[in-house]
Amino acid sequence: MLQAVHSDRSGRVFVSADYGAAALDGPTPVVLERAIPLPPDAQLVPLADRAAIGLGRDRLPRPLGPARWALAAVLRPGHLRTHLPAVEALADVAPLEPLPYAAVAADLSGEIVVAAVAHGSAAPSRRA
Question: Does 34 fall in a domain?
């Protein structure tokens, strides 16, 4: 299972080992099951004043807390996001800008992964 990640106010990234990774597939948080390693040209972006949502042991979505901001990735051409970050907006927060935010998580080794697929020249080549 992928693990939830979040950022603090200074932009540091933390793995929330007690929570599974959640992402939005439509309006509802779901289990993030598939992700790729964070591409080297992707940018991690803390989503200020938006609490990260993770999955508890019961696999239900839960906010990680107001000081634990959601984290997203902005992908460059060659990658297509599959899920949006699962967030809970705090009071009186403006809507997100329409940027291509993608959900992020951590694999079991703690490496950051992103909800995306590579296409075109970014996709790994297949050998026969």
Answer: yes
